[in-house]
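Supplementary Text 2. Reproducibility record for the structural model of the 193-residue chain.

All settings were left at their defaults, and a single model was retained for analysis rather than an ensemble. We include the record here because the model underlies the residue-level annotations in Supplementary Table 4.
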Amino acid sequence: MKIYIDVLVLENVVINYLILLLTAKFAKIKTSNLKLFLASLAGALYVVILLLFPNMKVYYSTTAKIALSFLIVAIAFSPRKLVSFIKTMVIFYVSTFIFAGAAFAFFYFNQSGGFVKNGMVYVWNSKWTSLFFAILTAGIIIRIFWDIVQQRLSKEKLLIPLKIAFENEITDMSALIDTGNSLYDPLTNSPVV
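Retained model, structure tokens:
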């Protein structure tokens, strides 16, 4: 099988960029496109090193891959505090796993050509449509996941305990603080104003 380095680099830059962009969205970190691109390029160059020097097993170790992810996050986001750096790393890994899982699911169900060797993903289907649809599938899954998480987190923060006392009876319940039309009329499904 022939592997074209330019295609491999381009695929990895695109995918790394999207993962870093997703990390920035999840972590609510503002960064520049240049930093995201440079971090993506660093990850892609690592893949080229793995391809060109397959006998250097140190690059395949878990330690090397963790060091690479630290470097990528440092380049992309430049966190100044250790807590911020660790939080960004966790979000980076979660974003990577979500993205990779969605892309693998697409390739599995689509039966596209590709394999994983030494931690590198090769897609030998020469059509860019497969990569595009894999990214689209990942985007849809991530969007659904993000909406669910945001909805749960935001509503849990807005729920407060409430006691209603009426004619010597007390009822405990939870109440939703409505700061942006989160409440809906049960009959018409219209926002409560």
